[in-house]
Amino acid sequence: MNTSIRRAERRWGEGVIKFWLYSCAAISIITTIAIISLLIVESLGFFDEVSPAEFFFGTRWVPLLEPSSFGILPLLWGTMQITVMGAIFAIPLGLASAIYLSEYASDRVRSWVKPILELLAGIPTVVYGYFALTFVTPMLRKVIPDIQVFNALSAGIVVGIMILPMIATLSDNALRAVPVSLRQAAYALGATSFEVTTRVVVPAGLSGVMASFLLAISRAIGETMAVTLAAGQTPNLSFSPLESIQTMTAYIVQVSLGDTPSGGIAYQTLFAVAMMLFVITLLINIVSQMILSRFREVYE
Amino acid sequence: MMSDSADKKAPREAVLDLQQVSVLYSGKPAVKKVSCQILRNCITAIIGPSGCGKSTLLRSLNRMNDFVDGVTIEGEILFAGQNLYGRDVDPVEVRRRIGMVFQKPNPFPKSIYSNIAWGPSINGYDGSMDELVERSLTQAALWEEVKDRLQESALNLSGGQQQRLCIARALAMEPQVLLMDEPCSALDPISTAHIEDLLFQLKSKYTIVIVTHNMQQAARISDFTAFMEMGDLIEFGVTDQIFTRPNIKRTEEYVTGRFG
Amino acid sequence: MAFGSKEEHLNLQKRHRKARLFKLLCAAVTWSSVLLLAVLLFQVCVAGISWIDWQFISSFPSRFPDRAGIKAALVGTMWLIILVALISIPIGVSSALYLEEFAGKGRIAKIIEVNIANLGGVPSIVYGILGLAIFVRFFALERSLISGALTMSLLILPTIIIASREAIIAVPQSMRAAAYSLGATKWQTTWHHVLPASFPGIMTGIILSLSRAIGETAPLIMIGAMTFVAFLPQGPMDSFTALPIQIYNWVSRPQQEFHELAAAGIVVLLLVLLLMNATAIYIRSKTERRLK
Question: What is the pTM of this model?
Answer without folding.
Answer: 0.88
